[in-house]
């Protein structure tokens, strides 16, 4: 395994155990990346998650989330819980499965359970996964099927982690559990991370000089839907990508799109995008290059600021190229709908659209404002 390297990202991982963290001091100390505990099992939520997320994001630190896996509990239920808790939060890093408890399950069964979790969280979020474990556990408790996923390895007191039969390289190395970082009281886990930990690091680069751009299929995508995004037809995309059955595309598949197919340019027949415009996101990446999660799309957002060819989207505080936006047609008189995602609340949706949960409940005939469900379509305007 590779040794630590000064060119890697300096990182930490934190949970409620670290208490109140001063992320301004953390950043000033040279830390660049922070993974934070989001959830554990099927009910536990880290009580410092929201505070850690908002404070770290305000300092411009790269952010990742991890779930502490409990093998004795249902894997899919754990994945749904994790997706629910991080819904609406933007991650710079691959989602981490914290795998360090065996609960007396065999290698094969434990690996089955981990793979079920990974596939479910990928399906729910569209985001890639990294496996966190420690050297001895990798040697004794899981099998090689997990080797297709990148490794975040824990091994303390060494400059390079020990070998294991599954992985021969790492994207994350937790080298200490007793680190001292300004802004954090007590001990802190210390890490080095490579570019491979980032969500956009596996994006397929565009070949120079060709006439194509690429789109990575997300959960819920259809070929006809992607064709509509880019102003083309599913037949053309199928022919261009050698797809014999247009009803069969898979998450993570990279499709070629002819440059210029999306003729909207950020506009629709109803006008030009400007501050205050209601828009939908159709692009694959934020202006930073980070991949846009599937759950961000298909919602209506408000343009808060325009800068050159980019727009700041109010509800998610992220910059998107104007060419990757479409104006919601029909003006203010047309009804606007929102599809409920994991973790949404009626009051949160109301805040997003500048209204109250009471008005949304009345508009949609909702008798109990505390009961909405993922997939429910709610009129917001």
UniProtKB/TrEMBL annotation:
Output the SMART domains linked to this UniProt entry.
Glyco_25, LysM
Q: Which residues cross the membrane?
A: none
What GO terms describe the biological role, i.e. biological process, of this protein? carbohydrate catabolic process; cell wall macromolecule catabolic process; peptidoglycan catabolic process
Matches recorded under SUPFAM superfamilies: (Trans)glycosidases, LysM domain
Swiss-Prot/TrEMBL keywords: Glycosidase, Hydrolase
The GO terms describing molecular function are: lysozyme activity
Please tell me whether the keyword Hydrolase is annotated for this protein: yes
**Reaction equations catalysed:** Hydrolysis of (1->4)-beta-linkages between N-acetylmuramic acid and N-acetyl-D-glucosamine residues in a peptidoglycan and between N-acetyl-D-glucosamine residues in chitodextrins
Which enzyme class, named as a word?
A: hydrolase
- This enzyme's EC code(s): 3.2.1.17
Q: Which residues form the LysM domain?
A: 213-257, 336-380
Its domain of life? Bacteria
Per the record's keyword annotation, is DNA repair included, yes or no? Answer: no
Q: What's this protein's family per the entry?
A: Belongs to the glycosyl hydrolase 25 family.
- UniProt-recorded name of the protein: Lysozyme
């Amino acid at each position: 395994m590779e040794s630590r390297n000064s060119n890697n990202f300096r990182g930490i991982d934190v949970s409620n155990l670290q208490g109140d963290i001063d992320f301004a001091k953390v950043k000033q100390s040279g830390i660049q990346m922070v993974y934070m505990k989001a959830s554990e099992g099927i009910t536990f939520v880290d009580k410092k998650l929201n505070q850690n997320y908002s404070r770290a994001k305000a300092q411009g630190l790269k952010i990742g989330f991890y779930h502490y896996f409990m093998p004795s509990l249902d894997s899919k239920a754990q994945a749904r819980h994790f997706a629910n808790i991080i819904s609406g939060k933007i991650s710079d890093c691959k989602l981490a499965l914290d795998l360090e408890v065996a609960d007396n399950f065999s290698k094969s069964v434990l690996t089955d359970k981990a793979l079920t979790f990974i596939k479910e969280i990928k399906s729910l979020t569209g985001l890639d996964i990294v496996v966190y474990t420690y050297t001895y556990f990798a040697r004794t408790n899981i099998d090689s099927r997990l080797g297709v996923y990148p490794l975040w390895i824990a091994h303390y007191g060494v400059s390079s982690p020990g070998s294991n039969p599954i992985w021969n390289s790492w994207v994350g190395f937790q080298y200490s559990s007793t680190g001292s970082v300004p802004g954090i009281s007590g001990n802190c886990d210390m890490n080095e991370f490579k570019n491979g930990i980032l969500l956009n690091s596996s994006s397929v680069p565009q070949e120079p000089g060709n006439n194509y751009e690429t789109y990575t299929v997300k959960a819920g995508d259809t070929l006809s839907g992607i064709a509509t995004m880019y102003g083309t037809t599913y037949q053309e995309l199928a022919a261009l990508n050698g797809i014999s059955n247009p009803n069969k595309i898979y998450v993570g598949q990279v499709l070629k799109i002819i440059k210029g197919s999306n003729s909207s340019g950020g506009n629709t027949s109803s006008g030009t995008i400007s501050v205050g415009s209601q828009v939908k996101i159709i692009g694959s990446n934020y202006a930073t290059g980070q991949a846009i999660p599937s759950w961000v799309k298909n919602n209506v957002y408000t343009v808060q600021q325009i800068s050159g060819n980019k727009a700041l989207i109010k509800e998610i505080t992220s910059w998107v190229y104007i060419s990757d936006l479409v104006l919601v047609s029909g003006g203010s008189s047309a009804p606007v709908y929102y599809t409920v995602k994991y973790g949404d609340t009626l009051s949160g949706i109301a805040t997003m659209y500048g209204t109250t949960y009471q008005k949304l409940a009345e508009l949609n005939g909702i008798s109990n404002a505390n009961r909405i469900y993922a997939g429910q379509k709610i009129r917001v305007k």
